[in-house]
Amino acid sequence: MTAKPIKTETEYNNALARLEIIFDAPTDSKEGDEAEILSLLIENYENQHYPISAPDSIGAIKTRMI
Fold first, then answer.
1. Is 6 exposed, middle or buried (0-12, 13-18, 19+ CB in 10 A)?
2. How far apart are CA 46 and CA 65, in angstroms?
3. Cα–Cα distance, 58 to 44 (Å, whole number)
4. Gap between the Cα atoms of 38 and 51, Å rounded
5. Is the model's pTM score more than 0.85?
6. What is the CA 50 to chain-centroid distance, rounded?
């Protein structure tokens, strides 16, 4: 695997599919390193394209009360 930024939805979906395959790889293996890098790239893409805004204070309190 060549590490490069994820720029398109197709690349994002391919990265998710690959991560699913190698997710349980040992951390000290080539696949484990690849999984760690993919996780960071996926997180970066999601933060840019699917940001999650913090709820307003009242909304957060109401959610916690449920």
1. buried
2. 29
3. 29
4. 18
5. no
6. 10
SS3 for 31? helix
Q: In 3D, which of 1, 11, 10, 53 has the Cα closest to residue 32?
A: 1
Name the token pair of 9. Answer: 């939805």
Domain boundaries defined on the chain: 9-65
Buried-exposed string 23-61: b where 16+ CB fall within 10 A, e elsewhere: eebeeeeebeebbeebeebbeebeeeeeeeeeeeeeeee
**Per-residue pLDDT reduced to its tens digit, 7-65:** 999 999 999 999 999 999 999 999 999 999 999 999 999 999 999 887 788 888 888 88
User: Between helices 30-49 and 9-22, what is the axis angle to 10°?
Assistant: 140
